[in-house]
Design goal:
Aminopeptidase, 6 strands, 29% helix, six-stranded mixed sheet, alpha+beta, 142 residues
Length: 142
Amino acid sequence: MENIAITTVSPEELRSGELGRKLRHYNYGVVGEYPEQQYIHLSARDGSGRLLGGLRSFVFLYWLNIEVLFVEADLRGLGLGSRLLAQAERQAIDLGAKNAKLDTFEWQAPAFYQKHGYEEYARIDNYAPRFYLASMKKTLAR
């Protein structure tokens, strides 16, 4: 173990995907084969091309993992976030997802996600000073 060097990954190594393939093949031996990670990236723009909101997520091991959902402040409460979330969930179901999960800060949108059927399953208090981070999940229906 003394001759092992730990280095920053090169762009070529990152592009090769070798590390992910190694982990996936190990996982296959435990849970069986599953599809590779699939991305769902959505943007909402007005007629002039202004970015109004969007969603960044991926499906892995039959779970939709929502990383970012954002709507401009002047458009919140008008249904755009709901439309983005619903579209991502539909696409995830088409990719084989059975469930969805996300993290949201106390000051962001826990109530929004609860309204859409998500339930809190874990919380880290003071993740940001004075604010909790909620982990939420939902079963996706076909």
